[in-house]
Amino acid sequence: MSVKVGDKAPNFNLASSEKAMVELSSLEGKNVVVLFFPLAFTGVCTTELCTMRDDIATYNGLDAEILGISVDSPFALEKFKAEQNLNFSLLSDFNKEASIAYGSLYDTFAFGMKGVSKRSAFVVDKAGVIQYAEVLDSAGDLPDFEAIKAALGNLS
Questions:
Q1: Is 6 contained in some domain?
Q2: Does the chain have fewer CB atoms within 10 Å around its N or its C terminus?
Q3: Total number of domains in the chain
Q4: How far, CA to CA in Å, does 92 sit from each of 23, 26, 67, 97, 98?
Q5: pLDDT of amino acid 155
Q6: Which of the following is catalytic: 9, 14, 39, 45?
Q7: CATH code for position 144
Q8: What is the pLDDT at residue 54?
C-alpha cells in the first residue's frame, strides 16, 4: 500500500551515485521531492529526470532537495547521471526496501522483469511528513510537475 498525504515519510538510507549513503531523516528541515523511476537509460525516465534538471532553479527556490530513486545499482546511476548532466542525487534502491515502503514497486514490469520501481512522486515537508503523493501505474506517464511545485509552494 502506498503512503498518503499526512503520513510520516518512511525513512530510507540508500547508496547514491556518488557512493555515499543518503538517509531521508538527515534532510529534515528541508523540503524533499522523492521521485521513484523504473530504470536508468530509458526514454520516459530520462525525460522525467531531465525535466527536473532543467527546472532546478524553481526547486531550489522552493527550498527543495530532489532525490531520484531506482532499483539500478549505484554504478549504473553514476553513469546515467553523468550522461544526462543531472544536478541532483540519484539513489540506488537495489534491495527494493524504499520502493516497497512507499508502495512504489511493480509486481511485473516490461519483459517480465520483477521488482522495478513504479514512477512515483512524493513531496516530504521539513518535518518529514508527506504533503503530496502520486504513484503511477503506467510507466509511460510522467508525474504532475505542476502539482509537485504547487505542493512545495504551499509549504512556503
A1: no
A2: N
A3: 1
A4: 12, 17, 10, 10, 10
A5: 92
A6: 45
A7: 3.40.30.10
A8: 94
Is 45 known to be catalytic? Answer: yes
The dihedrals phi and psi of 7, each to the nearest 5 degrees, come to -75, 150
Per the domain annotation, does 95 fall within a domain?
Answer: yes
What average pLDDT does range 124-140 have in this prediction? 93
Q: What span, in angstroms and rounded, lies between the C-alpha atoms of 70 and 83?
A: 16
Query: What pLDDT sits at residue 140?
Result: 85
- Least Cα distance to 102 among 119, 89, 88 occurs for 119
Spatial distance between the Cα atoms of 80 and 7, rounded to a whole number of angstroms: 32
Q: What are phi and psi of 30, to 5 degrees?
A: -135, 145
Helices 43-54 + 74-84 axis angle, to 10 = 60
Question: Is 74 within a domain?
Answer: yes
Please give the Cα distance from 139 to 61 (Å, whole number).
Answer: 29
Between the CA of residue 126 and those of 45, 114, 132, what are the distances in Å? 27, 33, 13
pLDDT surpassing 90 at residue 21 = yes
Interval 60-111: pLDDT, tens: 999 999 999 999 999 999 999 999 999 999 999 999 999 999 999 887 666 6
- The residue segments making up the domain with residue 39 are 13-153
The C-alpha atoms of residue 99 and residue 78 are separated, in whole angstroms, by: 20
